[in-house]
User: Fold these one by one.
Assistant:
Number 1:
Amino acid sequence: EADIYQTPRYLVIGTGKKITLECSQTMGHDKMYWYQQDPGMELHLIHYSYGVNSTEKGDLSSESTVSRIRTEHFPLTLESARPSHTSQYLCATGLYNEQFFGPGTRLTVL
Amino acid sequence: SQQGEEDPQALSIQEGENATMNCSYKTSINNLQWYRQNSGRGLVHLILIRSNEREKHSGRLRVTLDTSKKSSSLLITASRAADTASYFCATDKGDYKLSFGAGTTVTVRA
């Protein structure tokens, strides 16, 4: 079954640690996205990719970085986590105009 | 930047009643989409309406679009407890990037 996977689902980490949030998909979609969402708030696009070796920054400035070496994999990395990075991070793929979302990673930085 | 704004922020209705929520946006769009998010989870695509369409139906969902007023509405008929969720409108300017509003939280009481 085609799907989108995000790991870990929950992460509590100390300030200054390097973290990587994983996103993988079996849908074969070229377009992939990372959103940041605070509780009860709108989603903000922080990174997107339209294919292998293509990454762009989104509308919301973020200290995170992404890579797209394989179609199915779009990891997000924070080199030095801070409390201001505490949020939910949602990964999505896109086919034509529609987007398909993973379950999200809830990150808490202490 | 936030393109869409939903109204109301929260809505509580009895099972079997209809739920209506509105979305306003600021710039010209290619299409407008509605997504549902259950608590703490990823978003699920509900329906897409193109800029040259005025109304669209899908099951118990009815979406309208008024491009002259830059607004859309989502009607859920005969609501069920399972419809309890947050509903987001998202606009697409034709570049495959979505701009989301802050959402309407719907609670359906049994």
Number 2:
Amino acid sequence: DVKVTQSSRYLVKRTGEKVFLECVQDMDHENMFWYRQDPGLGLRLIYFSYDVKMKEKGDIPEGYSVSREKKERFSLILESASTNQTSMYLCASSWGGIRYEQYFGPGTRLTVT
Amino acid sequence: GENVEQHPSTLSVQEGDSAVIKCTYSDSASNYFPWYKQELGKRPQLIIDIRSNVGEKKDQRIAVTLNKTAKHFSLHITETQPEDSAVYFCAASMSNTDKLIFGTGTRLQVFP
């Protein structure tokens, strides 16, 4: 059974802070994704990675960066948090790229004050 | 630009009735169309998907139809039950960017 975990369910940070969101999967998946979920906007792709040390920009990468030093771990970094980054962040992984099932983590609800 | 439009944004049905959610996509080369269900407070989970080489796929009470000419696909849920209440997201693969673009979601409420 695929398991995708995220480091925090809820997080409150101040404007300007550097924020790290971590995602770990235990199924040896090559592909990992970070999405942001906002009401009325659906799921929007921030960054994705097809392999260790590889990263590709999604649709809304501005203000974010990522790190993938190990296959099982994909980190999302907010370099200087802003209030418009208050959102639900979802991590996902898949073994075969975008045309295969993505397994999602439970999400991190981030509030930036 | 690349986009997926999803309608309606909310849908209320009586238990036992059918529900239909429709999505249109912009990339004529899209070839993979999944549907995800997200129950309240839970993570999205894949419920069914279809590839462009077939026009319809069924799994018990749910089915997806694809019209490549019109560039739209639909989710059909028959004999709805209260546990079908959730937000449903469609998505389409984009050929030139190799990304999955999600629709904005449909909140389905099934009343007993």
Number 3:
Amino acid sequence: GESVGLHLPTLSVQEGDNSIINCAYSNSASDYFIWYKQESGKGPQFIIDIRSNMDKRQGQRVTVLLNKTVKHLSLQIAATQPGDSAVYFCAERRFPKLTFGTGTRLTIIP
Amino acid sequence: DTEVTQTPKHLVMGMTNKKSLKCEQHMGHRAMYWYKQKAKKPPELMFVYSYEKLSINESVPSRFSPECPNSSLLNLHLHALQPEDSALYLCASSQEKSGDTEAFFGQGTRLTVV
């Protein structure tokens, strides 16, 4: 069965606001945790990853936080734009496997 | 070139048909993957190839038969499928080392079994 899962299936955010997408995991043996974005009709696209021994990693407009104590992962998107509308999956990497969580649909309100 | 190309984009097949899905990448990646994705669900891992050898089979029924003829190509041969096999089939590739997490996905083949 899956060892990663998301708290909320849908999230609506006002354009320009920050978005926070959450994910819970149950397996502590993962090497990395990764966020993917999947737009309609496309394959998943890598956003950002975090090694399992890190707490925080920042990219361009995105930040991933890892709380190993409560086995929780989050993706923060700053200044959300219409192009951010998509389904977001967290995934865990236990090489060579890449296992996806349930997914959250992010909708941007103009 | 950071593309994974899948053909065909759409496929309709009968339960007695034999068809093949194709995947190609020219990024020098030595790990290649097949995933199955049902509507509103996450991708589910089916097979992993490492250096053209099958390294993981996630208990996939034998009516799905993968093949990796060379380091750039990955096929999925389909035979005697069931309507419940209708889904989006995604191919992905990545570097073959644990520190490289970025897997590149193709746009998928939308398969309908009638």
